[in-house]
Amino acid sequence: MADIPPPTPSELLRMVTELQQANQQMAEENRRMQEQIAQLVTNRLEHNDDLHNREENRERRSMPTHVSETPQQEEEEAHQTERSQPEAEEEERDNSARPFTADIMNFQLPRQFTLPTTLTPYDGLGDPKQHIKKFRSIMIVNGASDPILCRCFPSFLDGPALDWFCSLPADSISRFQELAKQFEDHFAASAIYLHDSDYLTTIKQGPQESLKDYITRFTKVAMRIPDLHPEVHLHAIKSGLRPGKFQETIAVSKPKTLAEFREKAKGQIDVEELRQARKTEKSTAAKDDDKPRDSKKAFRPVPRYESYTQFNTKRDDIIKEILNSKLIKPPRKAGAYPESKTVDKSKYCTFHQKHGHTTDECVIAKDLLERLARQGHLDKFIAGRMQKNTSSASDLVTASPSSKEKDKTPAQPRGIINCISGGYAGGGHTSSARKRTYRAMLAVTDAPKVPQPV
């Protein structure tokens, strides 16, 4: 017998689509059946009420009519009837709220029994089977028996669900299994529609979603699907992977089981978490670098000189002039310093070309001007040195003519030495070239003179 080839992805998709359509038809059919059952139950209750009312009317007619002998006696009977009606209604309401048998109602709860409060009351919306499972699980802790389950179950009902319980016939429930069955049947239509395996094919990994988040989201949905086949689970989770290196790795390795797929995914998850940790470190470092300089510890230069020269001009003007004269170069970042919002705009430094401090407060500018002043480059901005330079110049102008003439008189030489410097430089750089030039000169000298015509 030949082996049947496995279905192709297109055939699997077609089979999944057919199963989905069949499930939808079955769900619709179940809904219609539940509506019919509910309608039949309602009709039966109405019919029973009609029969009960007819029987009561028949009994009243068959009873002998009592005629009051006096008007006072008739009034007393009327009051007695009015008092008896609320009591009858209260008794009927009490009976309707107690559909359990006498054995359950007479059961004595343990003295140390405490009712759990962790379960949210069921109000008619949601899956009734899920509510029963949760109720049983929390009651197991107290070792609840069947009568205790019956007595405690109404405490976890609310709204329409509690109204349904109160409408149950009296003495109709003797076991919790009967109550759970009627509860599940009545609220079956209110159950939330559970996803089937077809829904898994719609779950895709997002463009920026990590593999760990995708597998977690996929698993939460898959766990709620009853009787999910492992092969369908594996095919769906592989189909939802985002195109990339990991998808290519899975396509090449072709894991056969979910365990093999999770083993491959674990390595990829470790790589992604390592990359994310590096990105976080880089972003943290970048944020630290982007912090304004004002938030960091301010740099305060220390003055280099104990005393500074007093200038006759403002330091701002001196800085401008020496910058224009190219005597010094401006700072490399002059005019391009980042300024925070809290900087004092009223202060400006001409040397650094930034706000926050003045030129007189700038220690670097003061040290620079002091160094230039001590080197003699700023004498014109110092009052004492300007007078000294002026007086020395006037002394030179008023010097005596005799001294000038004396300075002009040359000194007598001690002796004279005559020398010949150089020689004939024509003819070229080589000896043969100089010889040719010399022969040409001799040929010109020895040439006969040609008589000139008169």
Written overview of the protein:
This protein has 454 residues and is mainly α. Among the domains are: 102-190, no CATH class; 197-278, Non-ribosomal Peptide Synthetase Peptidyl Carrier Protein, Chain A (Orthogonal Bundle), CATH 1.10.1200; 315-393, no CATH class. 54% of the residues lie in helices and 1% in strands. The chain has helices at 9-62, 71-96, 102-105, 128-140, 146-152, 160-166, 176-186, 211-222, 230-239, 245-253, 258-290, 315-324, 363-374, 383-397, 401-408, 431-446, and strands at residues 348-349, 354-355. A two-stranded antiparallel sheet has the order 1-2. The termini are far apart. The model is unreliable at 64-70, 91-97 and 396-407 (pLDDT under 50). Residues 152-243 form the Retrotransposon gag domain. InterPro entries: Retrotrans_gag_dom. Residues 22-98, 270-306, 389-415 are annotated as: Disordered.
Brief summary:
With 454 residues, the chain is mostly helical. Helix content is 54%, strand content 1%. It is built from 16 helices and 2 strands.
Summarize the SSE layout with pairings.
Elements: H1 9-62, H2 71-96, H3 102-105, H4 128-140, H5 146-152, H6 160-166, H7 176-186, H8 211-222, H9 230-239, H10 245-253, H11 258-290, H12 315-324, E1 348-349, E2 354-355, H13 363-374, H14 383-397, H15 401-408, H16 431-446
Antiparallel strand pairs: 1-2
